[in-house]
Amino acid sequence: MEIQTKYLGEIEVALEKVLMFSSGLMGFEESKEFVLLDIPDNDNFKFLQDIKNSYIAFLVVNPWNFFCEYQMDIPDEELIKMQIKSKEDIAIYNIVTICDVFKNSTANLLAPIILNVKSNIGKQYILQEENYTTKHPLYTEEITGEKNVSIK
Amino acid sequence: MLVLNRKTSESIIIDENIEIKILDIVDGKIKIGIEAPKDISILRKEVYENVKAENIASLETKVNIMDVINNI
Fold first, then answer.
1. In chain B, positions 9-28, which contact chain A (CB-CB < 8 Å)?
2. Contact criterion met (CB < 8 Å) for B51 and A108
3. Neighboring chain B residues of A5 at a CB cutoff of 8 Å
4. Long-range contacts of A141-144 (CB under 8 A, 24+ apart)
5. What are the beta bridge partners of residue A37?
6. For A122-136, what is the HEC assignment?
7. Quick one: A116 exposed, middle or buried, by C-beta within 10 A (0-12, 13-18, 19+)?
8. Between chain A and chain B, how many beta carbons pairs sit less than 8 Å apart?
9. pLDDT tens for the 152 residues of chain A, in order
């Protein structure tokens, strides 16, 4: 199917690539169908694009490319709700907020996007861990290492 | 909004399987205990509002995202 995207023009996506977010994203509860789009010549980022509303596209990252110590505990009940049966079913992305000065851009580590890549189910989940916030600078070394350790 | 008066150690029951109990009240701070099935999501409202605000901020950035991420 053809979809209109916010940043990549009109593109063709396969129906089986559509991710179902039954609760939407927080603040965007009406957005229930997304696709994860690669960005040409850029492996660091992807777009999570609402297939029905081109304006709604979130820049996301694989958190471990930037925050190697990032960890989370997802309760079994949550995994069951998302029909996740094994580690291989899961992909995690975090929404990035780009600032005019790129060095000030941040990732939301408090509320990762959890995907069941096998059954194409997605959810934004708020972690119970208290050492994560919605604004972790992408490029500050002390945040990726020392800060998390010292708070624990 | 339904408004109920409760004293310390009194509860309310929602949908027969969620219990919200007033444990203690000190200096205007109320300690609440919640018993609910584990698949029920319970959040402090300000945490939810914080995530919602960040999602909106991410989407409404005035910066040209493609320019920025391709020039790292």
1. none
2. yes
3. none
4. A143/A67, A144/A66, A144/A67, A144/A68, A144/A69
5. A47
6. EEECCCCCCCCCCCE
7. buried
8. 80
9. 999 999 999 999 999 999 999 999 999 999 999 999 999 988 889 999 999 999 999 999 999 999 999 999 998 989 999 999 999 999 999 999 998 777 889 999 999 999 999 999 999 999 988 899 999 998 865 444 443 433 33
Question: Which burial class, exposed, middle or buried, applies to A91 when counting CB atoms under 10 A from its CB (0-12, 13-18, 19+)?
Answer: middle
| ipTM for this model | 0.88
Cβ atoms of A82 and A121 within 8 Å: the answer is yes
Q: Considering Cα of A81, then A49, then A24, then A111, what sign does the dihedral take?
A: positive
Say if pTM beats, i.e. exceeds, 0.90.
Answer: no
A120 inside 8 A of chain B by CB: no
Query: Is-contact A119 A146, C-beta < 8 A?
Result: no
C-beta separation of A88 from B46 below 8 A: no
- Neighboring chain B residues of A73 at a CB cutoff of 8 Å: none
